[in-house]
Amino acid sequence: MPPRQQPTFLPDRYFCASPINWRCHNGFKTIRGLNQHRNTIHSTDREVRPKPPRVVLQHPPEDIQDGIKLPESYDDSENDDENGDENDDMDIDPTGEPLPLPRNHRAYELRHPVLDGTPCDKNGVDLPPDSAPPPRDPPRQDSWAPFRDRTHFELTDFLFRRNQMAGAQVDALMGILAALYNVPPPFNSHNDMYNTIDSIAHGEVPWESLTVVYHDPNNPDGAIPENSPPWMCAEYEVWYRNPRDLLRNQLSNPDFNGEFDYAPRQLFGENNQRIWSDFMTGNWSWKQADLIAEDPETHGSMFVPVILGSDKTTVTVGTGNNEYYPLYISNGNVRNGVRRAHRNAVSLVGFLAIPKTDEEHKNDPEFRKFRRNLFHSSLTAILEPLRAGMTVPEVTLCPDGHYRRAIYGLGPYIADYPEQVLLACIVQGWCARCTSHRTDLDGAGQSRTHEHTQALITSFRTKELWDNYGVIDNIMPFTASFPRADIHELLAPDLLHQIIKGTFKDHLVTWVNDYLKINKGEDAAAIIADIDRRIAAVPPFPGLRRFPQGRGFKQWTGNDSKALMKVYLAAIAGHVPPQMVRAMQAFLDFCYLVRQDTIDESALDAIEDALRRFHTERVVFKNNGVTEGFSLPRQHALKHYRRLIQLFGAPNGLCSSITESKHIKAVKKPYRRTSKWKALGQMLLINQRVDKLERFRVIMTAKGMMEGALLPEYITEQQVPDGDEDRDTDSDDEDDGEFDGPRISAKVTLAQTKARQWSTNVDEIGTRVKRPDFCELIRRFLFDQHNPDSPISASDVDLDQCPTFRSRISIFTSAVASYYAPSDLCGVGGMHRQVIRSTESWHGGPGRHDCVFAEKDPSLPGMQGLFIVQVILFFSFEHRGIGWSCALVRWFETIGDEPCPLTGMWRVKPEMDEEGNRIMRSAHLIPIYRNKFVPGNLRPSDSLIAFKGYYVNKYSDHHAFEIAF
């Protein structure tokens, strides 16, 4: 038997060069692979990019005009033109950067007139206006040091950061490469690779440690008496990195250019309504700048808010010390989308100590006091390097290449409620922000301050402080030792734990089940099971998590709670009292309103109204014996959201989901790579090496040394043809979600490859989809397109007057909708993508035909200007030299002229007439179950044909909530 012939190694020959996502440079061996990638990931790349927007700023009120910095190109005459272009997506600020004002085309902004982030030189001397930044260091022959070249770096980055290959496997790979090519391998061993990473000089911030021990307050020398509990004798290590150096690395990151605010801003939209979006648009940063500006030496500086976050996390479910206490740091200058995207805008600054003791001493007041003191003293020590920069500006490099004089200030702290209790030094069950009594949290109360707390401590005894004011004696929060900082004001709103996992999952969902068990007796189990079946039977939707067994699972995550919120309201309607449904609907409205990316004054009023309705309707739970009252800290926190939005901007930029996601990269994945023995030291080193590789890549990209592919000889436009290749577009990858790129108007683009096994004959296609009039529908469509001013509608015109049709038809099983949706999971530019499916078989099972919003009349608000349709077929053809992309749809008509008063969602039912309108994006319909029980064998794929009416699910995502009202 002849030996098996060794196949030739085929490198990637075709590479993605998407203009939308310039970070994408995936490689493929075949054109088919590249086309498949482009079809799902970059379907809008071939769209014509919109021209740069012109400046259209609206005159502000006369009494505040003096505070506005208008661009030099500003022209008053443009605003007097009634026929001016009102389709611009963005305005331009004085630095030429686009302003994130998605809904207010004629908007203006005020920038802080004193702390305006004036560029300076390395010595802190202000530069003349419009000065160009100093040139970046040009690439040199040794620019890749300590790596030999780009390939050497890419291999290192792939092995250590991306693939996270174990050291023994790296050694094995190097041995294989040496034997295969008979040349020395890239690295002699894994230690050689580690040493190379360690020698990267860019952005190195080494780890430091401090040790804390207990000191007996009863002994002058702090000596610990004999027979003391073990926790008193232990030494507690706190590992940290210099926060000043980490912030300077963040501030100098060129990847943030264009997504960075150098001064506090106030945004105003139509009718002079105030707008809150990114952190620097809030009132707090402006007021802090006012305080700093009292010192003339700070004028022209750049205010840098320091955002902190901490939360314990568990890395194993085994025995032993499996908890870690990471502390994170960010800055308030980067915009919310950057912080949510985890583009190195959030850094691991330290690991706090977790003192533990046995069951005998865990409730010892002295132990709990030591634990609090350890926490606050550790934070004070870690943040000490920032103290000098809080009063005296220091020169730092910024993303645009300019230097500026930065002055720091402690900003919001991201934490869940137990962490807020610890931070504010209050008693569990009290509000960390106001003095409302724990038995009546929604009653009267005033804002807590350090001064008020200190006055209480000096006036009352320990028990009175604890019982009557919720204050813990003999300790002040760490912020009391830093200028312009008060933790009671700085506690950030927590969407994840206060609203999603707290009020919704822990309270409302639990209360609904408790109501059924209390009031429905033996029928409760059957009703709860039917609610689960309803949840399991909802039609599929892009990005919607499936609940095949309902909500009855044990381990809940934040994503599980978010997904359940989208479908829960319709599932309980008919099984619980109408007031309970209204309470749930009011809460969901509140939740979706506060999670928007941009919030104006009218939205604040809507938030207040939703909260008022929720408080009015939730009494149904008390009246039915489910709960004794509503003095719950997480629900009480909702009362503070209006003011918190005004202080800090949109809450989605400060949510604890940001730090929880960071746990995966900074704690959990590094832990899995360790030997599990004294893992913390190994985790510190792994984090430091990952940071170095990421920083090195950013710097090389800024120098233009990462452009192109590793095999440039294969990269030519001639080798990347545009022709379609036959492939199955129904892959397992749901390419829905965010993508980076400039903001563009909503587009829906058919897949770039046609479906297999479909005829191109119109009559055969009509027979297959059970529409024998398919050809007639196309002809009437063409008549309507060629005769837009015809007084006779296409459906009424004689068929003989319609154009003849003999063209070949191409069938597609999907289309990609790309649209601006910054409140959802999106790219830094605010763009979101959904894949709309229309296929006879989805994953080898039943067919899937998604529903979509179709535009009816853009001038009408919400659902009044929209249709709901179900896509039966995506197809395209050419007629008279013009290409047409179309969809055969099943139409739904609205039930009534307003949303359902119970659920707040519009209702629709199937209709038979067909019309032609522009598709916008996917829509999600949920059956109106009423009080009927759902069969256990009902499949999600059958839900859209099994019921007489449907809710238009405005809670499917935030963009739908904003358009389907």
3D architecture notes:
With 965 residues, this protein is α+β, with helices and mostly antiparallel strands. Helix content is 31%, strand content 15%. Helix 16 crosses helix 17 and helix 23 crosses helix 24.
Radius of gyration: 31 Å
Poorly predicted runs are 1-9, 17-23, 44-105, 713-735
What is the average per-residue confidence, as pLDDT, rounded to a whole number? 81
> Which outline best applies?
globular
How many distinct helices? 28
Cα-to-Cα separation, first versus last residue: 72 Å
| Proportion of helical residues | 25-40%
Major pleated sheet: 8 strands, antiparallel
| SS-derived structural category | alpha+beta
- β-strand percent reads 15-25%
Q: What is the number of beta strands?
A: 28
Write the layout of secondary structure elements.
Layout: E1 14-15, E2 27-28, H1 31-41, H2 76-79, E3 108-111, H3 150-162, H4 167-181, H5 190-198, E4 207-213, H6 230-233, E5 235-241, H7 243-251, E6 265-268, E7 274-276, H8 283-292, E8 302-310, E9 313-314, E10 323-324, E11 326-331, H9 336-340, E12 346-351, H10 365-382, E13 394-397, E14 403-414, H11 417-424, H12 450-459, H13 462-469, H14 487-490, H15 495-519, H16 524-536, H17 558-572, H18 578-594, E15 599-600, H19 601-617, H20 619-623, H21 633-636, H22 641-648, H23 656-672, H24 679-702, E16 737-738, E17 747-750, H25 762-768, H26 774-786, E18 810-812, E19 814-820, E20 831-839, E21 848-849, E22 851-855, E23 866-879, E24 882-894, E25 907-910, E26 919-923, E27 925-927, H27 943-946, E28 950-952, H28 958-963
Parallel strand pairs: 8-14
Antiparallel strand pairs: 1-2, 3-6, 4-5, 5-12, 6-7, 7-15, 8-11, 9-10, 11-12, 13-14, 16-20, 17-19, 18-23, 19-20, 20-21, 22-23, 22-26, 23-24, 24-25, 25-28, 27-28
